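Would you kindly consider the sequence and fold I have copied below?
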Amino acid sequence: MKKIFLCIVLMAVLLSACGAPAAPPTPEPTLPPTATSTPAPLPTPTPLPPTATAEPSPTPDPLLFRDEFDSVLGEGWQWVLENPQTWSLSSEPGWLEMVVSSGSVSAGSAENLLLRPAPEGNFELETKVKFKPTGDFQIAGLLIYESAANFVQFGRAFCDYPQCANDGFYLDMVVDGNMNPENFAVSAPETDVVYLRLRREGSTYTTYASEDGLEWKLIGAHTSDMNGMFVGLVAAQAHSAPKPAQFDYFLINSLP
């Protein structure tokens, strides 16, 4: 009986060895290797082009013309009723000397009007004059001229009428042959040398005077629609003995 049991057990073992092959063990899932995290390189900043240094806009030079009266007259001048015997650039070098004539602009008889074409637009005339008038109605100064019937003259002059200031600054406006009665008479200083300015802005003509060329005093203003085609210097109206007036320079500045 014992032999029969051993045989049965042996057969069971043999059958088990000859059965279907065992399934391979399921491998343990493994994580893929962790990629080494390499930081992305920072972008290289694109260099900006250098900012151009802003150049300041040049300030427009207002000077249109200047004559220092050194030995010869500047280009562009023309004489009206020239008398070569009564003007000079050599009597006092660096100054234009003009003997104050007996004629007048309004009568068309003033000698040695020194004129040049007026600029377009608004402008200002300036001069430095050495002159001390002593008799009616001597004047030396600046002129804006269309004709004998239409002009503005501003200068140092003499007048002993009630509306005058004797030796002083006077603005004369003549329109269509008629002189404006307001001359804005202002007494001149004791010094022989003064500075004069005559400004045109549209139809307004404004005048200033100075003792030193630095501090300017408003004298007066007139309006006129005349077409002032010429600008320049005048030395005239000497009803008494003529005397010289000397001009150190003449300039024209543009105005806005």
Notes: The first strand starts at residue 63 and ends at 67. The domain at 63-254 is CATH 2.60.120.200 (Jelly Rolls).
